[in-house]
Amino acid sequence: MTIFTCSDTFEGILCGVYDAWTSRLGHKNVALELEGTGNMQMFTEYRQVQESLSKAEKVIQAVQTKAGQEVYEQIYRASLSQEAEKADRIYRFLIYALHYGKVILDQLQIPAVYDMFQMNRNVGNEAYLLIEFLRFSQTSDGVLFGMVGPKNDVIILLAPHFADRLHNENWIIYDEKRKKAVVHRALGSWMTVEVSEPGWKERMIKSGDQEEFENLWRAFHKHIAIEERTNPICQRGHLPLRFRPYMTEFQRKREG
After folding, report:
1. 6-20, 139-153, 212-226 — which is least confidently predicted?
2. Are 235 and 250 spatial neighbours (Cβ–Cβ below 8 Å)?
3. What are the helix (H) ranges across 32-85?
């Protein structure tokens, strides 16, 4: 068995697919693995994938030509998944996709296709929920700042929605787990940035007026609640606990 190790990026996975496919070792004799995951296996050769734009572009062209745009979009969303085995799952899926073409998406009886469906559903559901649950605060510089901690790497999927809805605003969506952010310039475009500078999050200080508004918002939610109808189990079904630390109405009132 030969295992190709690649970076946890879309481009890295595509380059891994290219190297594994063109190695001519046979699909059953190769596998893809993200760098830093999994345990070393005996009697296995490990090859580190060297990334290049030309490799990634060749895979993209092959997918779009032979399998279509929807398949391409599905492997992109799958690359955002939290699943440690996503690289090899994408590779296994593409073996079928490049053979059968567009119709592969309907063949859920094939394990590789079902795995792709599951990853896409998980990523898509989390992105959808975050669009509903994301809360922005206004910094002293007038920038709208929202912080999330998603299981999957989905902030890039949130950007088009908020770029349209808040087109006239400067805003930032920060993923504190991955130390990366989507930054949008008012009336302009958006881009993703890596945030490695210590204390960056803490410097996004809110203005006094914004804190007062947040306190009023929390008070509003507290007073409209009907204590006799409190149903924590139902609440968790509609609003999972992991989203609440990032939502204004579930944070403690600021002392001032």
Report:
1. 212-226
2. no
3. 53-66, 69-78
Per-residue pLDDT of 168-189, as tens digits, reads: 999 999 999 999 999 999 999 9
- Give the integer Cα–Cα distance in Å for 96 and 243: 36
Q: Where are the beta strands (DSSP E) in the chain?
A: 2-6, 30-34, 45-48, 136-138, 144-148, 171-175, 180-184, 190-194
Rounded Cα distance between 252 and 137, Å, is 15
- Determine the length of the chain: 256
- Output DSSP code: residue 49: P
**CA proximity to 100, closest of 63, 74, 73, 59:** 63
- 48 forms beta bridges with 5
pTM of the model: 0.80
Give tens-digit pLDDT for 83-114: 999 999 999 999 999 999 999 999 999 999 99
Residue 18 structure tokens: 């290219």
CA–CA separation, 100 and 107 (whole Å): 10
